[in-house]
Design a protein that fits this description.
By secondary structure, the protein is of the alpha/beta class. About 65% of the residues lie in helices and about 10% in strands. It has 20 helices and 12 strands. Strand 11 and strand 12 form a beta hairpin. Helix 6 runs antiparallel to helix 11 and helix 8 packs antiparallel against helix 10. The two termini are about 65 Å apart.
Amino acid sequence: MATGTQEREESAWAVISPVVRRYVLGSRYITWLVALGVLAGMVAAAASGFGMPFMIRYVFPVVFGEVQPPEAIHAWLEAHVPAEDMAGAILWSAALLIPFIMAVRSTATYLNAFLLTKAGMLALAEMRTDIFARLQRLSFSFHDRKKRGDLMTVVVQYTQNIQQGLITILNDILIQPFILVAAVGYLLFAALTSRESAMLLGNLIISAAVIPVIHFVGKKLVKHVRKSLVGMNIITATIEETLSAQREVRAFNLEKRQEGLLQDAIRYFNRALMRIAAWQQLLTPLVEIVTALALSFALYRGAQDGLTLEQFTAIATAFYFCYDPVKRLGATANCCQMVRAGIEGVNEILHAKDETPEPADPQPLPQPTQGAVDFRNVNFSYVEDTPVLRDISVSVPPGQVVALVGPSGSGKTTFINLVCRFYDPDSGSVSIDGVDVRNLTRADRTHAIGLVSQFSALFRGTIRENIRVGKPDADDAAVERAAERARVNEFALEDPAGYDRMLEEGGSGLSGGQRQRVSIARAFLKNAPILILDEATSALDMKSEAAIQGSLQELAQGHTTFIIAHRFSTIRMASRILVFEAGRIVADGSHAQLYESCVLYRHLYDEQVRQEKHGKESAC
């Protein structure tokens, strides 16, 4: 049993130690903060473990006049203090030693807590930044497999737990043994100067009973800590899902359902927390019972050996400072298991395989970039053995406007995702101007592609800052020209702040059409050789779409453009149409050619026209 527990502890430290090396020892400033904090803790430990018993045994009796101070101190006082003032000087000297030791202990304890807290906060900030940066670099496949709520829990809650746990571990694993050594040192000192060595040995043997108790409690804690982390993931995911879908929740009267899901998750989480608390709190009384047994043995032996009250009180205090570190080290062992569980969740992100990695030997795009796109025998699947694209081979010359048409799930959006290298094909290649997109750096690839999607993401900031996302180094004049071409000025200048009007998260306060115009302005500003319009008007009504059509046509001029739209009115500006069905391109040509030759295209078009006549919309 002990061997198995030892292996688990070694495994826990094997998980924790890389984090310590990276976020504590990896920064010279944080390392110094930790070192100084631990040093201050050791001073406090010495003042507690040795200083307190020493005062009880040797200083208090001097204060109460029961004994004289040590000969060296008494001789120094005789040489510097008149005889009539000797008693008062001895009393004052002994009395002042008490606040001096307590001041040293208190100051060192404060510095220990402050310095380690500061080190922990700096390490926490760096860890969160690394995780957030890693999340932004990982492939879409990774994000497809993970829930956003789970990822948010890792970034916020897991890292907080790790920070608090690491500081506890680094502090206690260094300082508590020092307190233990100081207290044992006093016991050895007492044993060497009197006859209490047998009592010391007997108590140390009894204290060994604490070790299997600590192992047992740690084993129970690990299971419930992992359950609590799962519960927190479910809570965060439920809240995030509900808040991001408020319209659907209210439209379908799902409030009670979502509240029930959250209550179930909270109950699961609370059960795990209560079990953690139960096992954590159980450790203290168990250790205290062992301490009481040891002290009762000390009292019994002390009474037989003729101990004085001062001697027994000092030894009892030293024993307390022996058992308290043992108790804290037991809690530290359990804390290691809790931190380990958090680090395992963090490592799922930091050590996740990047399925669209940066090339080891990148190739630059030809300059100026023309925007030719080639697919060669491309096959792709999100899930193994479930192909989404099958043997796609197509070439799009620079400046051509191409519409992608087909039933839902036929592979249109996946085709675009491969152009952007959001995913890599299972086989075959996708190239821009003859360069495989897998050989392009992320920066070169993003500079070559402009994207206007169905739900344009606007960020907290001004309208001007949101447009400048398209080209961060653009000056105000360029931003305003792009805004005018996208007709953002028509609504932005109605506000006194103009382009400096602040937008909240998601662009709240703007209509769907206004948000799309900001997104189109970004694309105008970026002026990338390849433009992707992915359902750019599908969320708009007919009137808003008509207002934006002119901007889209102007934006597409001179750019290789891919259009995905469910309304045929949006794809009329395309000179070429690719028809998708079940992951294949089944037809390729102009509208007139396809209407005559492609049954699927003709059916989709006629259905669209029929429904438009009836004032309805149909998915293409």
